[in-house]
Amino acid sequence: MKALYIASTGMSAQERNVEVISNNIANMRTTGFKRQRAEFQDLLYQQVRRAGVETSDNGTMLPAGLEIGSGVRTVSTPRVMSQGAVQATERELDVAVRGEGFFMVELPDGTTGYTRDGSFSLDADGQLVNSTGYPIQPGINVPQDAQSISISPTGVVEILLDGDPAPVQLGQLQLARFVNKSGLSSLGDNLFAETAASGAPQIGVANTDGAGDLLQGFLEQANVNSVTEIADLIAAQRAYEMNARVVSGADQMLQATSQLR
């Protein structure tokens, strides 16, 4: 009985949906996290009678066909790249992007990773790094005698040295934009990688071309709405239960048929 297999695809799809929702909820406090959603497509159809075929010698046609579907599949889990709320941290090396841009970091293999997590620190050499220890690109090196660090909305990094009232400019933070942000590949550690679907990065300074401005002393929070996620979880659970009932109903029908035999 095909209903068993069709319902099983529904159960599998909703199981994947719950996995996506659970990952969103687990990352509610992850800096710069972007929620995902599961998207589905129906499977192939068996054409028992095609719409438009002639039903008599007079040329009359079948107004609607007879099609039997094969179920559903999870086709993608795109990220929702909407802006998360920014929260003050009162830490001078925390930076939030208010716009579409991504910070760039150099990965151990020499490639570039992209992140919305602006919780930066200094390593033992005074180099500006992300929370995993990867250097920010382009590189910023802060001397040990720096008294304070300021980062402007456009990404200009300046310091004050002891006994010198004039600020010293160290460099410029740059941001990357993508035509299709949802096409980025997730690497974990709050990092994304460029793909053919995302397009090549468009690199520029903050506050230009829609990249967004920078807020020193703030961090972007996850764009996960707990109420929405719980509502989606309940809907997924109910859909799974209904598919399970179809399996149970098909089993009872098969049992009745076997008893007749």
UniProtKB/TrEMBL annotation:
Domain Flagellar hook protein FlgE/F/G-like D1: 96-158
Pfam families according to UniProt: Flg_bb_rod, Flg_bbr_C, LlgE_F_G_D1
Main location: other
GO biological process: bacterial-type flagellum-dependent swarming motility
Keywords: Bacterial flagellum, Cell projection, Cilium, Flagellum
Domain called Flagellar basal-body/hook protein C-terminal: residue spans: 216-260
Domain Flagellar basal body rod protein N-terminal: from-to ranges: 4-34
GO CC field: bacterial-type flagellum basal body, distal rod
Entry's localization field: Bacterial flagellum basal body
Domain of life of the source: Bacteria
PROSITE patterns reported for this sequence: FLAGELLA_BB_ROD (PS00588)
SUPFAM superfamilies in the cross-refs: Flagellar hook protein flgE
Family designation: Belongs to the flagella basal body rod proteins family.
PANTHER family reported for this sequence: FLAGELLAR BASAL-BODY ROD PROTEIN FLGG, FLAGELLAR PROTEIN
Known partners and oligomeric status: The basal body constitutes a major portion of the flagellar organelle and consists of four rings (L,P,S, and M) mounted on a central rod. The rod consists of about 26 subunits of FlgG in the distal portion, and FlgB, FlgC and FlgF are thought to build up the proximal portion of the rod with about 6 subunits each.
NCBIfam families from the UniProt entry: FlgEFG_subfam, flgG_G_neg
Protein name, per record: Flagellar basal-body rod protein FlgG
Taxonomic lineage from the root: Bacteria, Pseudomonadati, Pseudomonadota, Alphaproteobacteria, Hyphomicrobiales
Gene field: flgG
